[in-house]
Amino acid sequence: MDVYLPIANLSVNGLLIVALGGLTGILSGLFGVGGGFLTTPLLIFYGIPPTVAAASASTQVTGASVSGVLAHGRRSGVDYRMGSVMVAGGVVGAMIGAVLFRFLQSIGQIDVVINILYVVMLGTIGGLMMREAIETIRPSSKKANQPRKRRHHPLIAALPMRWRFYSSGLYISPLAPLILGVVVGILTMLMGVGGGFILVPAMLYILGMSGNVVVGTSLFQILFVTMFTTMTHALTTKSVDIVLAGLLLLGSVMGAQFGTQIALKAKPEILRLILAAIVLAVALRMAFGLGIRPDEIYTVAPL
């Protein structure tokens, strides 16, 4: 079933795009990530221009976040005050990212920048995940099984204007989550990712948030920031392909159900090791692509 993508000016196999969305949906259900950090690279491998892939993939992340926020909210797993501060920062970051996106697009370097960002990001995240997974499977010291003491970074304690975030059990400056939201908003705009793979570790190890509200609060921020990012892309960069976004969303909703069922039966440490291997493989493939001459030397630039 061939489908024409108007923004990408490309005919693709619609069933294959749905299957691609299903694959990222399965990963989302298996590993608790939005899947956006893999959707965009896989679309680029398939031949979708990086600008269109990054702009359209954020829609899929929005859809995948809705049910997660509702589920975590029912069990009081969302710190709405903390999430609102990060959403405000994310909106500011998305606007900054939109300016950067248009500038890089105007000088013809947006495709290269998106690819480089993914290589650096996936290589770093994949390496850290691989090390953690191996340490979990084969602990190298007696401290490996000891619980980590929860506390925020010393720099966070030095920031002024402290607020109480009761659900997170924190008394810190709102500037810390605000700045974190700005950074994630910029990445969401440029790369079409939800940012959960950055938010969750940052909230745990930098902000020192309680683990039972981290995932829900992250999804709350991702939900609203990706909605704003999609609208901003549609109005400014005009790179959102609604047909592509719809096919991805359809596949991801179905795939997430299968991934959740598999996750209930599999060992978490083995799943983390598999995800780390997938992330590193994608990073290596993108790094390889940066070093060879592309089939098309021009990019799509909507008027």
Automatic annotation (TrEMBL):
Chief subcellular location: membrane
Swiss-Prot/TrEMBL keywords: Cell membrane, Membrane, Transmembrane, Transmembrane helix
Source organism per UniProt: Altererythrobacter epoxidivorans
Transmembrane region(s): 12-38, 44-71, 83-104, 116-134, 178-206, 213-236, 242-264, 271-292
UniProt key word Magnesium: no
Protein name per the record: Probable membrane transporter protein
Family under the similarity heading: Belongs to the 4-toluene sulfonate uptake permease (TSUP) (TC 2.A.102) family.
PANTHER family xrefs: MEMBRANE TRANSPORTER PROTEIN MJ0441-RELATED, MEMBRANE TRANSPORTER PROTEIN YTNM-RELATED
InterPro entries: TM_pro_TauE-like (IPR002781), TSUP/Inactive_protease-like (IPR051598)
Any single Gene Ontology cellular-component annotation: plasma membrane
